[in-house]
Amino acid sequence: MTIQNTSLPPGRKPLDMRRFLDDWVMLLAALAIFLLCTLLIDNFLSPLNMRGLGLAISTTGIAACTMLYCLASGHFDLSVGSVIACSGVVAAVVMRDTDSVFLGVSAALGMGLLVGLINGIVIAKLRVNALITTLATMQIVRGLAYIFANGKAVGVSQESFFVFGNGQLFGVPVPILITIVCFLFFGWLLNYTTYGRNTMAIGGNPEAALLAGVNVDRTKIIIFAVHGLIGALAGVILASRMTSGQPMIGQGFELTVISACVLGGVSLSGGVGMIRHVIAGVLILAIIENAMNLKNIDTFYQYVIRGSILLLAVVIDRLKQR
Amino acid sequence: MELNALTDAGACLRFSAIGKQFPGVQALANISFVAHPGQVHALMGENGAGKSTLLKILGGAFQPSSGHLQIGEQELTFKSTAESIASGVAVIHQELHLVPEMTVAENLFLGHLPARFGLINRRLLRQQALELLKGLADEIDPQEKVARLSLGQRQLVEIAKALSRGAHVIAFDEPTSSLSAREIDRLMTIITRLRDEGKVVLYVSHRMEEVFRICDAVTVFKDGRYVRTFEQMSDLSHDQLVTCMVGRDIQDIYDYRPREHGEVALKVEGLLGPGLREPVSFEVRKGEILGLFGLVGAGRTELLRLLGGLTRCSAGRLELQGTELKLQSPRDAIGAGVLLCPEDRKKEGIIPLASVAENINISARGTHSTLGFLLRGKWERANADKQIKALKVKTPGASQKIMYLSGGNQQKAILGRWLSMPMKVLLLDEPTRGIDIGAKAEIYQIIHTLAASGIAVIVVSSDLMEVLGISDRILVLCEGAVCGELPRDRANESNLLQMALPRQRG
């Protein structure tokens, strides 16, 4: 293909409609669905429901931020659901035994970081497929969660721990604030740091990234380690909201997170992804789920609908690329 | 002339006012010409002139934004590759579309394997495959996996596949770019045969000698526009054609000027590693351009990959300006200032979905960012613009995705990546493969400027003229070992080839 038009002034370009759509269409769709729900469903906009919606977004949103990095680098992580459960359990158990919120949260985050590190090292250094690696750690960590918890929920009695899940700042629940901070931080990280750009390069063309001098292995390990850590953070917040660590929680959560990312426009094959994709995907999934709950749609049907939406989104995406 | 018995034999291929618009780019504008049956019709032009786009339209991979194709009386617009194939068109692409892990026979009949109730009739498959390959590539065993064939053989399989579908129009997109001399000869014979059978043969190549050898007509493109068609090759001189393509004389394309050479920059002693049969030793001085020549499989690329830290050496020693250089990874080489431009741009060079600026800045940004990881937007923009300007990368802007650029401009962007870094030794693997003459000349100029500034350059190339044109000294490899060395003034085509040819053993 030729590019003849070299005389374009730098910087200013005519608005490229296609590019604009590629970048923003899903976020606009999320907005449209939101407006539609506002009009069609009573109570949708009520403060109580908005709060519930925000909380529903928070767990998926936080984990999706770092899943974006896994996907953008051409991998994915199935262990995040188990990490969420296990970190909650670890926090609860450590707090029960030491009565220290600080130790409990630290232990939970440390556990997540460790799982992520193991994932990253096995994938980057031993070159094991990410699907297999995280499928294995998903089961291991789930098992550990049950073992630590002795098979049942572990209650938390430390009041100060509940700040993470139930606290408020300026009238906004803390989990929602943390989610917003995560969106901003990881969005910034992706675009304005070598780490973020290297992540995209690795997903876009691993060979070229290696030859260009990108420290591919280290970047991959960091991606998974951070994902483990942030997964654990989401788990701590969830445990705080439920005032207990529950080993059975978050089954299939990893797929929800990946669905949200892909729905928003993150490519499964790597090299394509922006934080606004993630925000859009998370919003759309959460709003639709919330709307279905308000409309009292049976859970069984909800599965079918959610799957169909995901399928539709990726099919549209493929058609767009034609 | 013996005409094929197909119904549309004898039909012309006519391009009528074909245009193709990509977002922000007019790749083709108003292309009209006719290719006659029983002729080999060359399409020439610099890279990015629109030849590949036209072939993709012919093959049904792209749909034209305007205009149409015509075979005989039939007006056609292909909506898919399948439609194109069904209409008797076969495009043999540079990247061959074969399944490496399947056998030759399976590849030949992929999509219509002889089978009953889903059970493949192996005997019939083999028999039909043998028939197809007969006279084309008799030595190929249909049972062989395609992965085990040479590139030239794979191409023949692709041609056999096209013929098996009764193709009347056969288009070759730079078919010889990775073939050995012998394989090229055979391909030429086959193309001549196709021509004599009355097929329409389109032939895209940058190699003048091939075009003059087998083509009967040439159509020249420039910047997505039709320039002119020469119906009589005999009236046409080499220089005339080049001038028509670039509007510039061919003499000064290599732009060689003698330079002073400084002290030894890189010293290689007894290097052994994958792809090398015997220990390799040589040195290259500051400001020197060392050409590495050899046939495919001689170990040139492998040697360069060892020097670039991509593969690890099993023995030997490297010395960079007097200090030992130990390479564990490309990062070590890059850190030391030994920079490699890989052979396969698409696979190992560019990050296709990323912007031109990203592709330029990726390596150097580490040292130009705050605390080693916070990008400095000002430097990012300034450096990308600087390299784009200095290397004359043709792009609508630094934020354009690099995959939309032509090969020559992608290569320049990768050179820009290394020019942003401290450089001592530049390793170039086939720096101008698949690049048009105009961009080639620009790349040679860049190489010379770099050498003149005291950088040692090692160039691997299978283009004999190129090696002779730009090198100060030429090292010849053969079957994984150094088999000779020639200074510029003593090297010529015949003694280089003589050296590069494997000796008959035992």
Radius of gyration of chain A: 20 Å
CATH topology of chain A: ABC transporter involved in vitamin B12 uptake, BtuC
Mean pLDDT of chain B: 86
Question: Can you name the CATH architecture of chain A?
Answer: Orthogonal Bundle
Q: Which fold name fills CATH's third level, the topology of the largest domain in chain B?
A: Rossmann fold
**Helix count of chain A, per DSSP?**
13
Main sheet: strands, sense, barrel of chain B: 6 strands, mixed
Q: What value does the average pLDDT of chain A take?
A: 90
* Portion in helices of chain B: 25-40%
**Number of helical runs of chain B?**
17
The first-level CATH class of the largest domain in chain B is given as Alpha Beta
Taking the alpha carbons of the first and last residues of chain A, their distance comes to: 17 Å
Strand content of chain A: under 5%
By CATH reckoning, the class of chain A would read Mainly Alpha
Family (chain A): Belongs to the binding-protein-dependent transport system permease family. AraH/RbsC subfamily.
Protein name (chain A): L-arabinose ABC transporter membrane protein
Membrane topology (chain A): Multi-pass membrane protein
Organism (chain A): Pseudomonas psychrophila
Summarize this structure as a short list of keywords or feature phrases:
heterodimer, A: 322 residues, mainly alpha, ABC transporter involved in vitamin B12 uptake, BtuC, two-stranded antiparallel sheet, 13 helices, 4 strands, 73% helix, globular, disordered N terminus, B: 506 residues, alpha/beta, Rossmann fold, 4 domains, six-stranded mixed sheet, 17 helices, 22 strands, 24% strand, sugar transport (chain B), membrane (chain B), nucleotide-binding (chain B), cell inner membrane (chain B), cell membrane (chain B)
Write the layout of secondary structure elements.
The complex is a heterodimer of chains A (322) and B (506).
Chain A: H1 17-40, H2 47-72, H3 80-98, H4 101-124, H5 130-149, E1 154-155, H6 163-166, E2 168-169, E3 172-173, H7 174-192, H8 194-204, H9 206-211, H10 216-242, E4 244-245, H11 253-264, H12 275-294, H13 299-321
Antiparallel strand pairs in A: 1-4, 2-3
Helix pairs in contact in A: 1-12, 2-7, 2-8, 2-10, 2-11, 2-12, 3-4, 3-5, 3-10, 4-5, 4-10, 7-8, 8-10, 11-12, 11-13
Chain B: E1 13-22, E2 25-35, E3 39-44, H1 51-58, E4 66-71, E5 74-76, H2 81-86, E6 89-92, H3 104-108, E7 115-116, E8 119-120, H4 122-133, H5 151-164, E9 169-173, H6 181-196, E10 200-204, H7 208-214, E11 217-222, E12 225-230, H8 238-246, E13 264-272, E14 280-285, E15 289-293, H9 300-307, E16 315-320, E17 323-325, H10 330-336, E18 338-341, H11 345-349, H12 356-361, H13 377-390, H14 407-419, E19 425-429, H15 437-452, E20 456-460, H16 464-470, E21 473-478, E22 481-487, H17 493-500
Parallel strand pairs in B: 3-10, 3-11, 6-9, 9-10, 15-20, 15-21, 18-19, 19-20
Antiparallel strand pairs in B: 1-2, 1-4, 4-5, 7-8, 11-12, 13-14, 13-16, 16-17, 21-22
Helix pairs in contact in B: 13-14
Keywords (chain B): ATP-binding, Cell inner membrane, Cell membrane, Membrane, Nucleotide-binding, Repeat, Sugar transport, Translocase, Transport
Organism (chain B): Pseudomonas psychrophila
Pfam family, one (chain B): ABC_tran
